[in-house]
Amino acid sequence: xxxxxxxxxxxxxxxxxxxxxxTPFKPEQFENLxxxxxxxxxxxxxxxxSISSAGCSGGLxxxxxxxxxxxxxLQQFIHNDAVRHISGIVEKNVFEKYMDGGARGxxxxxxxxxxxxxxxxxxxxxxxxxxxxxxxxxxLDIERKVIKSxxxxxxxxxxxxxxxxxxxxxxxxxxxxxxxxxxxxxGNRSRILHFGPACLPTKRKKTHPAxxxxxxxxxxxxxxxxxxx
Length: 229
Known about the structure:
The chain has 229 residues and is α+β, with helices and mostly antiparallel strands. It has helices at residues 3-10, 18-21, 95-100, 128-133, 214-222, and strands at residues 36-38, 43-45, 51-56, 65-73, 83-92, 142-148, 153-159, 179-187, 191-201, 225-226.
């Protein structure tokens, strides 16, 4: 299994409805939310009530990264309270350098683009394999959004429209039409946080308040403050 494929499988989970993330995020919208200091993760974050537990084990390792592991419930009464996980990588790295290097095989590295160049706008493009995992057949099916807060910026990729049954074939990471599959990468001059490819339910009726969905994920990621700039 290639490193990029391993990373895709390892970091599973998250989605959303595109109308909900088309509006630029304003940091002051979340000023009153309690932020939990996570020293081992090198960040502060607001966890929705639907999160069962979360943490980074041991802080940054000798390779300069740590796994942020989040436990949550989904349709817990149907699945007998089975807990699920979504993981992100917190890494000591410069955001632009991380993206130029291919973001662990998820986007085209600068040197591997067409004729060795990125598109004219210089924006990162997902690898074909990553697009397939998001249930997309080409770049035309993918929408890339810029997201930012007071000490980080980044990108969120997902399908432009809800998938059809035919789109769920192949390497698509979900079998549920109500899911949104995505990649979210944020960072600054010293840290990055990378989620996905992953999938989560979108705008569905929860079976319990503790159910976790993509809207909860957006609230969570937009609240993040890195401890370094």
